[in-house]
Amino acid sequence: MSEFLDFLRHKFAYVAIAEFKPGKFEEAKHLYEKAVSTYAEGFKGAYLLQKPGTDEGIAVIFWDNVGDMEANQNEAYQAILNEMTPLFAKAPNTDFYELVSEIHPVEE
Q: Most distant CA pair in the chain: distance in Å?
């Protein structure tokens, strides 16, 4: 029964689309990984995507709910974000999405 209830509960994703100053993506990646490592309750995984040959990227962080994301924005997270801010070419576009479909490959 709990598997069925887990299936009914949707995850949420925080998505940030950003462009960094030339040559700063690698430093931003390191800080992103450091920030994500501070997450605990409700954190379900994270991805960082980079457009090849550019300093543009997309961060996707999955949560059980919006409250868990907000609860994980502690002092350590904020300090890392403050380190990352000067690396942006312009402010990132951010939004929050509900995961409404999740498809996995069929295992043989």
A: 51
pLDDT at residue 30, rounded to an integer: 96
Please classify residue 11 by burial: count the beta carbons closer than 10 Å to its beta carbon, then call 0-12 exposed, 13-18 middle and 19+ buried.
middle
User: CATH no. for residue 68?
Assistant: 3.30.70.100
pLDDT tens-digit map of 22-52: 999 999 999 999 999 999 999 999 999 999 9
Distance of CA 102 to the CA centre of its chain: 17
Domain that holds residue 29: 9-98
**What pTM, to 2 d.p., does this model score?**
0.84
> Rounded to a whole number, what is the distance in angstroms from the first to the last CA of the chain?
26
